[in-house]
Design goal:
Helix content is 11%, strand content 49%. The protein contains one helix and ten strands, in the order αββββββββββ.
Length: 137
């Protein structure tokens, strides 16, 4: 019985494996943040919901998630999307802005610096909008 089960299991594994593992079916891309709704100040200990807006460049861009990097009191933020690796992607220049929300808890009494990714300049260097939000008691 064990040999039959083992044979069936190995056969199943062999059939489920494929040379084309789909590794090139998609890739990730960082998109600029169009706008944010950060408050003018934070209160220590509170949790804030922050809304970011962004636009998809093509209809192959989907499933946006937050790109978030923390270094000291600085937070670098962008929109990360998964992009279908297709040759027939259509530009969506007239599409309305989309929103991505995240919660941010104030755990320090030091002002927070948010660096929002805005795209790249002509030389390919990343551009950021820097916003400092002070903490009030």
């Amino acid at each position: 019985m064990k040999k039959i089960f083992l044979l069936l299991f190995v056969s199943f594994l062999a059939l489920s494996c494929s040379i084309d593992d789909g590794a090139n079916d998609y890739y990730y891309e960082i998109l600029p943040v169009e706008s944010n709704d950060l408050p003018e100040s934070f209160e220590f200990g509170k949790i804030y919901t922050v809304t970011l807006t962004y636009k998809r460049p093509t209809d192959c861009h989907g499933n946006a998630t937050l790109y978030f990097e923390k270094e000291g009191s600085t937070r670098t933020i962008a929109i990360q999307t998964i992009v279908a690796n297709k040759n027939n992607c259509e530009a969506v220049p007239n599409e309305d802005s989309r929103e991505l929300k995240f919660q941010f808890e104030i755990l320090s009494d030091t002002p927070y610096v948010f660096k929002f990714y805005k795209g790249e300049d002509e030389a390919g260097e990343a551009l950021f909008e820097s916003v400092t939000v002070p903490i009030i008691n």
